[in-house]
Amino acid sequence: MHRVLKQVVGIAVVVLLVGVVWWARLGGGTEASVEGTAQSSSAGTDPDSGLHWVAAADLPAQARDTVALIKSGGPFPYSEDGIVFGNREGILPKESSGYYHEYTVTTPGSPDRGARRIIAARGGAMYYTDDHYSSFQRIEGR
Q1: Can you give the CATH number for the domain in which 92 is found?
Q2: Which of 3, 66, 101, 138 could form an SS bridge with 46, CB 3.0 to 4.6 Å?
Q3: pLDDT tens track for 66-94
Q4: Does the annotation mark 140 as catalytic?
Q5: 13 and 52 fall within a common domain
């Protein structure tokens, strides 16, 4: 009897693992948003940067506030806001120095500026990062 029970449990574990792998390959529920992160609700990628689009409406409220401040010319809450972003990571399209400027997206509860930023390009494009430049999304519908 124990041998049969072990076989049943073994089969159940295999079926569970196959289900988890299948679910992960289908996106694993990526449509769900985690509080404070942007959802990638827009289909496709930006042809200029190759980055995924994110609708401005899907950005966290603080990021939308930062976009509004950039459009109005400030005032900005941090002295570092507006400094040149060097694009050392090479994720954004390669441009001359001074083409990109960074702005802080306030992170509630963070003791410092946090990891979230809006990068504004000279030509009007804007990019969002919530992981301190490890990844970016191109903002649409600004």
Answers
A1: 3.10.450.30
A2: 138
A3: 999 999 999 999 999 999 999 999 999 99
A4: no
A5: no
Identify the active-site residue in 31, 101, 102, 140: 102
- The active-site residue out of 80, 89, 95, 132 is 132
How many other C-beta atoms lie within 10 A of the C-beta of residue 64? 17
Contact 102, 112 (CB under 8 A): no
**Are 25 and 39 in a shared domain?**
no
Report which DSSP code applies to 36. Answer: T
- Which residues in 95-134 are b (16+ Cβ under 10 Å) and which e? eeeebbbbbbbbbeeeeebbebbbbbbeeebbbbbbeebe
102 is annotated as an active-site residue: yes
Whether residues 79 and 102 share a domain: the answer is: yes
